[in-house]
Structures are given as C-alpha cells and as structure tokens.
Amino acid sequence: MQPENNPSEWKKPVEQPAQAPYVAAPNPMSVDGPVVTLSPEPLPQDVVPLQPEVPLATDTIEDVRVDQSTVEPVRWKAQEYIQHDKGALWFVAFAAAFVAMMAIAIFLIQSVTFNILVPVMAVALFVYVNRPPRLIDYTLSRKGLHINDTLYPFADFKGFGVIHDGKEFSVFLLPVKRFKPGVSVYFPEASGEAIVDILGTRLPMQELHLDVVDRIVRKLRI
Predict the structure, then answer these.
(1) CB within 8 Å of 102: residues ≥ 6 apart
(2) Where are the domains of the chain?
(3) 45 pLDDT more than 70
(4) Which of 78, 118, 173, 216 could make a disulfide contact with 183, Cβ separation 3.0–4.6 Å?
C-alpha cells in the first residue's frame, strides 16, 4: 500500500542564492613558457663510454669441417682381379694336388661324398682361374663405394688400407661385422691420391699387410 499525500501539507521549497560556476584549481607543477631539456654533462676525455658486448662469431666444428656434398666423386675402371700367366709348371702342380686330394679321400677319409666333392671343386677352381677378368666400373662418392650397380656404404666398414703388390695398387675396406668379407678394389696409380683423400674423410686409414692365405694365393697365381 502507498501512503496518501495530503495537498494541504505541501510547502514551497526555500530558494537558494545563485553561485559562481566551478573553476578547477591551478596545477602548481605546470609552468607557462617553453619547456627546456637539460643535456647530460660531457664525459672527460680520458673516460671511454662502455659499449654493449656483441657476441663474436666463432667457427664451429660443422663450419670448419669439409662439406661432403661438395666432394666430387671419383670414377675409374679396373679389372676385378689381376690375371697372372700360368706356365706348364702351374698345371703340373695343380694336377699333383688333385691326385693327392683324391688319394686322401679314398684311402684315409673313405667317404663317398668327399670323393665326389674333390673333383667338383677341382673343376670349378680350374675354370675360375682361367676365365678372363671382368672390367668393372667403380665410383667413390660421399655415400660409399659403387661397384657397377651395387652400393657399399661407408657405414659397413670400420677402416681401409692400401696394398702395394708389385706394380698393382689396391684398396681394402675392412668390414664392421666380424664374419663379413672385406672388399678389395684395384685402382690405377693416377687416381690413388683422390681415392685416399675421399676415404680418409670418412674412414680411418690403417696399415695392412698380406696374410699367409693371400701370399699363397699370389704364389699360386690364382
């Protein structure tokens, strides 16, 4: 409910005298006139201002290392092995070795399987040593050694060595796996420096010598 207003009780409000308009107080910090900026005092001549340190550009190992992508591949052709001339004495020695192996197989071992295996091995060896060697294309790049269409990457080898046998030069790649055969490649003397330089950037060079088996093979001219 709302209260009832009695019109008889209404009174006229008291009139207030007129006042001057509001004026903001002046800011004591503001000063009329131009603004003057004080410059810093000059430093003495014997005092050198400090300059911010700038990091020097230093060469890292990656910057100094030779970029393998810019290495030009080396290509050459060589025979897969060196074929030696075989005289009459070689064939006589081969026949004597065959007869001795057959005698051992018949009288000592007395095995039918071994008796069959000996002549098969003799024929295969005779054909192999008398066939002409193939001329193979070699390419040495930053990826590895390409022998015809087969790639042998550097990751499969732990080192290499150069073998000088008479007038022939060959490089032998040592395999990482113990029972995996190495790779032997002949190369011309003119390409030797470029081949060793590329191999030396990827694999450590070791001094290699012919073992007993290699010496026997070369003596037999196989």
Answers:
(1) 115, 118, 119
(2) 73-219
(3) no
(4) 173
